[in-house]
Amino acid sequence: TLDEEDLETLRDLASMVEQELAAVQMATVDDLTNITNRRGFMLLAQHSLNRCYRDEVPASLVFFDLNHFKPINDRFGHAEGDRALTAFAEKMSNAFRESDLFARLGGDEFVALLTKTPKELAEHVVERLERLIEKHNKEAKRGYDISFSYGIVEYNPDKHPTAEALLADGDSLMYQRKAHSSNDS
Helix or strand or coil: residue 112? Predict the structure, then answer.
């Protein structure tokens, strides 16, 4: 049986835990898009990769960069640029599984880590995201289209001992693809 002093102590403890959880969420969630930010992604991604290594399951990382984002800001204003970022994050939420980890790294860069997913299956998820973005563009009619470049890299524990190494390879691959598609235009 708890007396009033014990109950007050428990209430104080509960309040401290709530404040701590709120602080962690503020530190790991992007204010604009309400998805995980870079800090949160790096913490959770490393944990996920450790588990993939231990359980010997595949994982794939997709690094995204929005195309022609600066002109959206320049022509339509930063509030419209924010709407584009938010729309992209929302479509990511619709395209990826609940178990996938996706985040806004900063600016117009996003990332997704798909566990138990080889590269070929990750390609299908990106295709689903492309269809969702196309549908959004047709319905939104904002005077611009959201589009993106991406790079997919499959997790290799020997080559990617850290989430940072996997992220760097995804970033590099995305920029290679972006440069190649720019040369084709």
Answer: strand
